[in-house]
Amino acid sequence: MSALLNYKLEGEGHTIVLIHGLFGNLDNLGLLARDLVKDHQVLSVDLRNHGLSFHSDDHHYALLAQDVNLLLDHLNIHSVTLVGHSMGGKAVMKLASIAPEKVQHLIVLDMAPVAYQTRRHDNVFAGLNAVIEDKPLNRRNAMDVLSQHIEIEGVRQFIGKSLYNNGQSMTWRFNVASLEKNYWHILGWDNIDPCDVPTLFIKGGDSDYLMPEHQAAIQAQFTNAKAHVVAKTGHWLHAEKPAEVLRVIRKFLQA
Predict the structure, then answer these.
(1) In the chain, domain spans
(2) Which one from 53, 86, 97, 162 is the annotated catalytic residue?
(3) What is the pLDDT of residues 125-143, one digit of tens each?
(4) Could you confirm whether domain 7-116+188-254 is CATH 3.40.50.1820?
(5) What is the pTM of this model?
(6) CA 230 to CA 188: how far, in whole Å?
């Protein structure tokens, strides 16, 4: 029996599953969860190698999807709406392909079903590894180390949410070594057979993760897909414009 993912389950009604992206945890889509829980059951999940979930040397989308599917079976949940951001978007796309009978709606936040060729996180890994090597004794020192590698304050604050004291020094809840080793799997993607689950791709207008050149790959793999662009927002659209993202999600679910 595989280990179960750490999760938070709240509310009542049709179940919406929220899946975070790389270096995240189950609180990352909290702005969405706080609204959706008013009239749904919301399942927020820590993916493997993140948050309080188990660490593993292996990290690719077939496993991420299987982990979530096992959790749904464990919780006796048979019908869901899946919402995934970035890496979590690929995880939910994969899950819809292996268990379409469970998925009523699929919502992908700023991610395409393609293999990306550009490494975007080398500075982040450098900062994470520097903290591991330096063994800072408090949060402020850890953030100082991080700032030598990651320029953008918002990125540092986001990453810093996964710092904790292991009894000797500050370190990371996520499994840095495995995520770095499997980084090309995280960027990568194996095309799935055509999936007819009703699907909504929500793009951050200023983000370059979901682009016009990805349209053919989307249409080939998701035959019942729509798209919506949230203007003047980047890859973190759910944090930057939660009210608009929620409006788009709710409209899609009611259609």
Answers:
(1) 7-116+188-254, 122-181
(2) 86
(3) 999 999 999 999 999 999 9
(4) yes
(5) 0.97
(6) 25
